Amino acid sequence: MRDETVARNYAEALFELAERHEGVEAYGTGVETVALLIDENDEFRQFLDTPRIALAKKKEVVRSVFGETLPARLVNFVLITLDKRRQRLLREIAREYQALLDVHFNRVHVEVTLARELDEQSVEEMEKRLTAALGKTAIPHIRVKWSILGGAIFRTGDTIYDGSLRRRLDGMRRKLLKADIPTMGEV
After folding, report:
1. Are the C-beta atoms of 89 and 81 separated by less than 8 Å?
2. The CATH fold of domain 2-103
3. What single-letter DSSP state applies at residue 1?
């Protein structure tokens, strides 16, 4: 829990810095780039994490890798995470920063589970309807799971809207099992 709180605090500080300077989206892209490099490149992650390498050397490498491509204040932010030995939290900081961006731009991520793939036009229509229903710009993340049989399941945050055929059939089955249906001998 503590790491989560620290990452949120760092993300909030970075967001405030971004609002005052180059812009929140540029910083979001930049912090995501740093986090992806750490996630995808084990050697770089180990280089940053190992206590055997001097802090000055780590800072030199970070400046050379990111100095030309990222805003200077964002590079300084990454250097501060090294100073404070928080570089292992950069992935979580990036995640928290993206959440702040979503709030700032009034966006909501929606996990959509479908029984089959949709064409591009249908996805766009679904996106429009979700945006209208939720009052925020909906960003659907679609996955296909044939076992729901039909319909769709929408999840945003802790809220789930289950319109799947499987759920409907299960509901009908439960009602039939509870119903007092006379047998042939009772008729």
Report:
1. yes
2. Peroxidase; domain 1 (1.10.520)
3. -
β-bridge pairing 107-114 and 137-144: parallel
Which tokens sit at 176?
Answer: 């039939």
| Contact indicator for 127, 83 with CB cutoff of 8 Å | no
Every domain of the chain and the residues it spans: 2-103, 107-178
Phi, psi at 67, each rounded to 5°:
-55, -35
DSSP state of 54: -
Q: How many residues does the chain have?
A: 187
pLDDT at 185: 63
Q: Which two structure tokens, joined as six digits, stand for 92?
A: 């979580």
Q: Give the Cα separation of 107 and 136 in Å (integer).
A: 5
User: What is the predicted pLDDT for the residue at 186?
Assistant: 62
Residue 90 Cα distances to 7, 39, 54, 111, angstroms: 8, 10, 19, 25
Residues (pLDDT < 50) of the chain are none
